[in-house]
Amino acid sequence: MKKAKKSELRYNEDDERTLLEDILGFIKVFVVSAIVILLFVNFVAHPVRVDGRSMYPTLKDGEFGFTNVGGVLLNGVKRGDIVVVTMEEKGQKTHWVKRVIGMPGDTISCVNDIVFINGKVLDETQYIDPDYRQSCVDQFGYFNKVPNADNSDVQDFEEVKLGVDEYYVMGDNRPYSKDSRYVGPVKKSQLFAKNMLVLLPVSDIGVKD
Q1: Residue 33 belongs to a domain
Q2: What is each CA distance from 18 to 9, 14, 31, in whole angstroms?
Q3: Within a domain: residue 112?
């Protein structure tokens, strides 16, 4: 009987070329995917987690969703829009979620805890629950006022005349919000995104604007 020949391992240049092509293909897919994700996050939608209660009850602490970056770039913003504002705190960039109250050229003032735009009372009933507002007034004695210089009392915030590139933003939950009443107007370049599609928790799914 003839002995069976042992199998031989042979070098195959095609195999090496195929492996290299697979690696290059993987790298290409990875790079393209990364670019698509970056474009999506920076020019279409940006993930945001609500931190704090400054926008309560419209947005609740811990809610997660996406904001519309493209909306700001293509359509701009209008009074009443929820916006994501790029701020700098302690040398680091951060994002605030607020609402546009004043537009370029507006004069914003507060008289007896009521907000005025160009001398007229600002109607905020579309986005601020009157019952919640009243509950804050009952608890604190005010809703729109801010602490005075020595924090010994509260007062109406100072009147501001906005420039051609300035916006006045405030949180819906005024007693708990750090906003333009404290840091002044923000520039258009700071308005990073607008509106918010809440995805989590599931019970709160919906577009907030």
Answers
A1: no
A2: 17, 6, 20
A3: yes
Residue 199 lies in a domain: yes
The pLDDT tens digits of the residues spanning 134-183 come to 999 999 999 999 998 788 899 999 999 999 999 999 999 999 999 999 99
Which residue range forms the structural domain that includes residue 172? Answer: 48-208
Tens digits of residue pLDDT in 177-191: 999 999 999 999 999
Active site residues per annotation: 54, 98
Q: Which of these, 172, 186, 106, lies nearest to 144 by C-alpha position? A: 172
Supply the pTM of this predicted model. Answer: 0.79
Cis-peptide, bond into residue 57, ω within 30° of zero: yes
Give residue for tokens 């729109």: 144
Alpha helices by DSSP H, listed for the chain, are 13-39, 69-75, 130-140, 180-183
133, two tokens: 């507002």
Residue 176 lies in a domain: yes
CA-based angle 50:68:70, to the nearest 5? Answer: 150
Query: Which residues lie below 8 Å from residue 170, measured CB to CB, with a gap of 6+?
Result: 98, 99, 101, 177, 179, 180, 181
